[in-house]
Amino acid sequence: MHIRGDRSRASLLVAGLVIVALGAVACEPAPGPTPTAETVATRLPSAVVTPSPSRASSPIPLPTIESLAPGATAHAFPFSAEAVVGYYQSQGYACAAARPSTEAAGFSFQRCELTDGDERIRVIGIVTNTVGELADGFASVQGTSAESILDPVIALEPLAGFLGAMLGETQGAAHLPWLAGHLGDTYASMKFGDLTIATYTESTNDHSKLYLEVANQAYLDAPPPSGAP
Q: Does pLDDT of 4 surpass 80?
C-alpha cells in the first residue's frame, strides 16, 4: 500500500452517513514507486509533510449527523474492521476474502471494489493484525479512461467518507480541511498520535487515481513477510 500509502466547497454529509451506518452495522504504497498488488500501501515513509495553512483552510461544511460511536483517539480506530467492511458491502462493494499481507508479516489484507454510476472504480483496502484488529485502511478513486488526471473535487466526497470511517466523525471532520487542501498532491502525510494519514496519487507521473490512507504505527513498523522481495 502507499502510505507505507476541493479545493472548493463540497458537501461532507456522506462522512456523517458513513459514521451512522458503521455504528448500526456493528454486527496497503511508498512515496513515488509503483503500487504493489496489495493495492498501494507499502508502508508509509518516515517523512511527514506539514499541512500548508493556506491550503488547509478551505471552507468545507462539516458533518452535522451525530455519531453513534465515539471519535477516534490518537491511538486507536473507532470502528472494527468487520464494521467497516460490512458497511462498504452494504453499499454494493464486492469484497474478496482476506489473505496474508504481502507487505507486513503477521497482518491480513482484504480488498473491496465498486464501479460507480460514472464508471469510476472505487476501492477500499483493510489490513488487520493477528487478532483481527484494524491496523491500516486505504481508499482510492480511479478516473475513467478519459480522465488522465482525476479532478480532486470528484474524489473528495468518497475519500472524505472513508476518512470518517477511519477516524470517526469528530476527528474525521477535524482532518477534512487537510485532506481537501492536499488531495491531488503526489504525496502528503501527517501524524495524528499513533496514526499516520496520507493522500497520494498512483505514481509521480500518474494522477488518474487518488488515494487516502490511515495506518497505525504497529503496521508501519512491521517487517515484510519472510521471502518478500
A: no
User: What does the chain come to in residues?
Assistant: 229
DSSP 8-state class, residue 161: H
- 99-117: burial string, b at 16+ Cβ within 10 Å, e else: eebbbbeebbbbbbbbeee
Instruction: Report how far apart, in Å, the C-alpha atoms of 199 and of each of 12, 137, 142, 178 are.
Output: 17, 12, 14, 10
Report the SS3 class of residue 13: helix
pLDDT surpasses 70 at 214: yes
* Among 103, 147, 115, 150, CA closest to 3: 103
Find the helix or strand (DSSP H, E) in which 160 lies.
helix 152-167
Residue 81: inside a domain: no
Q: How many domains does the chain have?
A: 1
Cβ proximity of 41 and 212 under 8 Å:
no
Is the confidence at residue 92, as pLDDT, over 60?
Answer: yes
52, three cell numbers: 500548508
The SS3 call for residue 27 is coil
- β-sheet bridge partners, residue 112: 95, 124
- Helix 13-25 to helix 152-167 angle, to the nearest 10 degrees? 40
pLDDT tens-digit series, residues 8-33: 223 333 444 444 445 444 444 433 33
Determine the pLDDT at residue 76. Answer: 81
- The range of the structural domain enclosing residue 58 comes to 13-64+91-221
| Locus of grid cell 460511536 | 69
Comparison of pLDDT for 40 and 107, the residue scoring more: 107
